[in-house]
Design a protein that fits this description.
There is one protein chain. This protein is α+β, with helices and mostly antiparallel strands and about 475 residues long. The radius of gyration is 24 Å and the shape is globular. Helices cover about 45% and strands about 15% of the residues. Helix 4 crosses helix 8, helix 8 packs antiparallel against helix 9 and helix 8 runs parallel beside helix 11. The chain folds into two domains: about 270 residues, Butyryl-CoA Dehydrogenase, subunit A, domain 2; about 180 residues, Butyryl-CoA Dehydrogenase, subunit A, domain 3, CATH 1.20.140.10. Strand 1 and strand 2 form a beta hairpin. The strands form four sheets. A six-stranded mixed beta sheet has the order 2-1-10-11-7-6, with no helix packed on it. A four-stranded mixed beta sheet has the order 5-8-9-12.
């Protein structure tokens, strides 16, 4: 059966070799450890959605290979409708979790990107990469795999290319090619959802030249593969995660450093091996789709912020309508990034291999907005909530429940007559978490930097074409080329 349940998913994680660390200790079970259980819970809700009539249409689809029902996050996106469901899925998951579920996102995009790129490489080089990829996709669909995606390398000195780094392990690289596979070394950094994933799809983090060909590698590995050490990053909410209380929701995000030390990858899981010429295509296709869809992520979380703002207003004793102008601004921000992402998809086209590729100009424009508008949405949410959500001056759950003085804390936390102190506290903590804690990652640099996106926008502006429109409308008969640069 291709559709897995929450229980199937949790069981699959429990069966994996422990190789995730945080705070200097090995996590024996990612499904129960305080450092990782919340991100597992977030991903588990995607499996719940597959069986919920309200969400099943978004959470599931039919395999283009087998005709069987599968989890949508393992599918090929072959049409405009398919890729629009990517955005719908992301917005849905933020509604259900309030945070990032990278294991249902980046790996999904990676398999679609590599479907197109392997087609092109096979056509030029006579390789059989796409057949290998198809075999793995069928495996992922059959087992309902949660797959993190890893592009970002540690990078090292930003002024040097990968092959020029004093430590070559700063970027993931091919150390050795064997008859039956490859050996890789290096680091992928700040990767979302790894602890909650079954496998990790590795892609090159940059477009490489011939001298950097050792870094041109794409493959997929089990999360618990021998030789891989995963170190979870510290987060502002870590201290609160150690307790079961309303100081932090039951869902959450996780990010990690992936340290590969001579890891062997069998050939059937290798989809690029030194074909440096196509690393640029991977970056091009990946960012076009990812930066179109990421508008749905921030929109989904923005929807939750609107709801949380309404709740805190009521808990403060006010009608949400008191702040309607600010709520309208929040909604406009949400629909701007979501709608521009959909527009990028609609302006895109189907690749000859079969997977959809969004329009890069609109997609990268969307990334710039994703790096700006959500911060305004967060500010407005804090503005509506007041000091209790933004200043950090709010007693902890333990103080709230203290047998000695907790009743006094609750007495003064309570505001409106209709709602309890705990209700106000929960609404306030949720807004704090959405706007200061888990809600911040993914806006500025998630999916790449806004400055990088601006470079793509710049490259896609047909400046001379636009200047020609204006010249003719103005009745200018002289040619007006750009002046030559002064030497």
């Amino acid at each position: 059966m291709a559709l897995k349940t929450r229980e199937d998913y949790i069981k699959s994680l429990k069966a994996m070799r422990p190789n995730v660390y945080k705070f200097g200790k090995l996590i024996s079970d990612v499904t129960t450890d305080p450092a990782t259980r919340r991100t597992v819970e977030s991903h588990a809700r995607a499996f719940d959605a597959a069986y919920d009539p309200k969400y099943a249409e978004i959470a599931t689809t039919v395999s283009s290979f087998t005709g069987e029902k599968i989890h949508r996050f393992t599918s090929l996106m072959e049409s405009l409708e398919d890729i629009m469901y990517n955005s719908k899925f992301k917005r849905m998951m933020y509604h259900l979790t309030g945070t990032c579920t990278g294991g249902t996102c980046v790996g999904w995009n990676a398999l679609n990107v590599m479907w197109n790129v392997t087609y092109e490489m096979d056509k030029e080089y006579g390789t059989n990469y796409q057949e290998r990829l198809k075999k793995w996709i069928l495996y992922a669909q059959e087992n309902g795999l949660v797959v993190a995606g890893a592009l970002t390398d540690a990078k090292g000195d930003r002024s040097l290319r990968a092959s020029q780094q004093p430590d070559l392990d700063s970027n993931l690289r091919i150390k050795e090619i064997r008859d039956d596979g490859i050996v890789i070394r290096g680091c992928k950094a700040m990767i979302c959802g790894v602890a909650a994933s079954n496998e990790i799809f590795l892609l090159p983090g940059s477009a490489y030249r011939e001298e950097d060909k050792d870094f041109a590698v794409a493959c997929v590995v089990p999360r618990d593969i021998e030789g891989l050490t995963i170190v979870e990053t510290r987060r502002p909410s870590d201290e609160r995660e150690l307790e079961n209380n309303f100081d932090i929701p039951e869902t959450g995000i996780s990010q990690a450093y992936l340290i590969f030390e001579d890891v062997f990858i069998p050939n059937d899981r290798v989809f690029m091996c030194k074909e440096f010429k196509y690393t640029g295509k991977i970056i091009q296709y990946f960012t076009a789709n990812y930066r179109a869809c990421i508008g749905a992520c921030v929109a989904g979380q923005g929807d939750v912020m609107i709801g949380a703002a309404a709740l805190i207003a009521r808990a403060n004793g006010l009608a949400a309508g008191t702040f309607m102008n600010k709520i309208i601004e929040m909604a406009i921000n949400n629909e701007t990034t979501y709608g521009l992402g959909i527009g990028a998809m609609a302006a895109g086209k189907k690749h000859p291999a079969g997977a959809w590729v969004s329009d890069p100009l609109l997609a990268h424009t969307n990334k710039v907005l994703v790096a700006t508008l959500p911060y305004e949405t967060k500010r407005l949410c804090q503005d509506i909530g007041g000091g209790i959500v933004e200043t950090g001056c709010f007693p902890s759950y333990k103080d709230f429940m203290s047998p000695e003085y907790g009743h006094l804390v609750q007495k003064y936390v309570k505001a409106g007559a209709r709602y309890s102190a705990e209700t106000r506290a929960r609404a306030a903590r949720l807004i704090e978490w959405l706007t200061i804690g888990a809600g911040v990652p993914g806006c500025m640099h998630g999916g790449g930097s806004p400055d990088g996106a601006k470079l793509v926008v710049r490259a896609n502006i047909p400046l001379e074409e636009f200047a020609e429109y204006a010249r003719k409308l103005a009745g200018i008969t002289e040619e007006m080329p750009e002046p030559e640069k002064k030497k």
